[in-house]
Amino acid sequence: MNNVVGKKKSSQWLYSLFNPFHLNTIQTPRTIPTEYSMKDMSSTGNTNTTETGQNENSLTSLDLESSISSSSSSSPLRSSKRSSPNPEPSFQKRTKLVNSKFDEVSILHEPLFDKSLPKNFNILDINKIEYAIKNLQKSINTIIEITPDIIEFKKLNESNDINNGRKLQITNNELISLSSRLKTLYKLKKIPIFDNIINSNIELNEEDIENLEKISNLNDSIIVKLPKNETISNINIKGIKNNLPELPKINDNKLFERVFTHKSFVNNKNYLNNSELLKLHNERLEFLGDSILNNLVTLIIFKEFNNCNEGELSKIRASLICNKTLLKFAYEYGFDTRLKSFINKEAIKSGDQKIYADVFEAYIGALGIERGNDLKEVQDWLIKLFEPLIFELKKDLNKEPLDNNAKSELYSLIGRTDMHPQYKVIEEGDGVEKKFIVSCMMNGEEIGKGVEKSIKDAGIRAAMEALKNKEMLGKYFLERQKIEKPVKQERMKRELMKKEARLKEMEQERINEKSNLPSTPPSPIRTDMFPIKVDLQAPIDSDSKGELYGLIGRKIGDKPEYINCTDSEGNFITELRIRGILICTTTDRSKKKSMARAASTLLNNKPALEQICKDFRTKDKAM
């Protein structure tokens, strides 16, 4: 019997706890004070009106509160559960109580229209809907993961680990009660739509559409106010000029839009996590496309250039898949106008515009995701796309190597002061597909033409071609000879006169030098003074070697001779000889110091220096 009673009480408790109307029950009626009811309701003749009074036409404060709560979310009376049990109506609300007619409450007056107003739909609504759905998924997931069902809720309420205040807070919370009921129904598999919402798997069939059309008001209209973006357009599958191979189609529309969505366009979606953001922009697709493009182009050029080594193949591949080439393809297919980003277009144009080359790689990455391992369609498209560039590369490989000395060689053959080869750009290039054309002109006549990717190289090619133009070279060579022969003869005459004048000056200098020679020394050189003794304690002057060289040269017109060798211990041995006489012998670990010590020894020995510097060039012998 006790068990039956216990179960009955438990079921009553659960019913009272999870009855959706339980928490809205108001047990204590609230009255309107006499001093305000008399003033506001003088027309009715009542002096004091309450919710429990007999006058059915009177508007109570509770009725007003419930009316305002249902019609205006901003009303202070909405959150009645957070206020005191019997809050006093404010003076402003009391004064708005007129008589018993509900439609005479001024704050509830609504405008009337002859027909339904059209619904507005703008870009802000899109963001609101996206944000709301994301929060809905998160909220449902939270309810499923952490909310207890009604049985678990009962155990929590009966637990001694929770104090009574906390129990009351949980028991009287309508939102907690609602969440628990939802969790219970979910566990009973009565609301499977929860899983569909979380997994974004809501599907409609044709019957659903037909039923919706039956209940929808076809007279209702919707005004779309989305911003127009004139720069967004469709891509050109065969190129702007209709001269490119047709783009392989990306069948998945979401994947297609992701290719043309830059990271800046979705960075403001703060309610998404990083993994969700990665699926909205094209950076990962670009990474994949870069690898696929690199591999497919490698296979193409490996087959096309049979005679190139790995280094040459690497250069060829780099020229084909560089940003400049991919940027050109992106422009020609119209990828630049399709890209969605929040980066200023002028800022992109003033930069390297790599952002558009990245879109081209992202497109290939998307094709790789759809095609999987079967990339034959993509490879065939790339073969056709790169065919003109490969043709030009093959022509370049067969060209004669550039001769960087061609211009100077041409000038040396036909150039002169008043006329020389000039290089004129006939046609500008873009450095990728369109090449520069430069003409080599001589006296207004073209003698050579060069075509290359840069102006400098095109000029060199023009000079190389001019050097092969024997007829024109012969013509201008003879013209230069005719003009330069008299000039050359005159120049040679002037140079001959200068040479004769210089010879006369040199002869006069020789005569003057002979007159200044000293007389014969009174005695010969005393050879018994040599070799002189070396003082190992004397300081070494690092400039002594140069000083001795200059002194001997001035005095006797000779120069010192240093003979070096090493001993068994690695020391340097230096012999100083002048006029064939051994002056001294020095030893040091350093070769430089050993020679400097020898020179210093002679410079410090004045008698020996005087003997070795005797000058025997006399006037009589010189004359």
From TrEMBL:
Domain (RNase III): residue spans on this chain: 250-372
GO cellular component: nucleoplasm
One of the GO biological process terms: box C/D sno(s)RNA processing
InterPro entries in the cross-refs: dsRBD_dom (IPR014720), RNase_3_N (IPR040540), RNase_III (IPR011907), RNase_III_dom (IPR000999), RNase_III_sf (IPR036389), Rnt1/Pac1_DSRM_fungi (IPR044449)
Top EC class for this record: hydrolase
Keywords, sorted A to Z: Endonuclease, Hydrolase, Nuclease, RNA-binding
Region (Disordered): 36-95, 506-525
Domain of life: Eukaryota
Ranges of Low complexity composition bias in the record: 44-84
GO MF term list: double-stranded RNA binding; ribonuclease III activity
PROSITE patterns: DS_RBD, RNASE_3_1, RNASE_3_2
Domain DRBM: from-to ranges: 405-472
Enzyme Commission number: 3.1.26.3
Catalytic activity annotation: Endonucleolytic cleavage to 5'-phosphomonoester
Keyword hit for Secreted: no
UniProt similarity note: Belongs to the ribonuclease III family.
Annotated protein name in UniProt: ribonuclease III
Species for this entry: Candida tropicalis (strain ATCC MYA-3404 / T1)
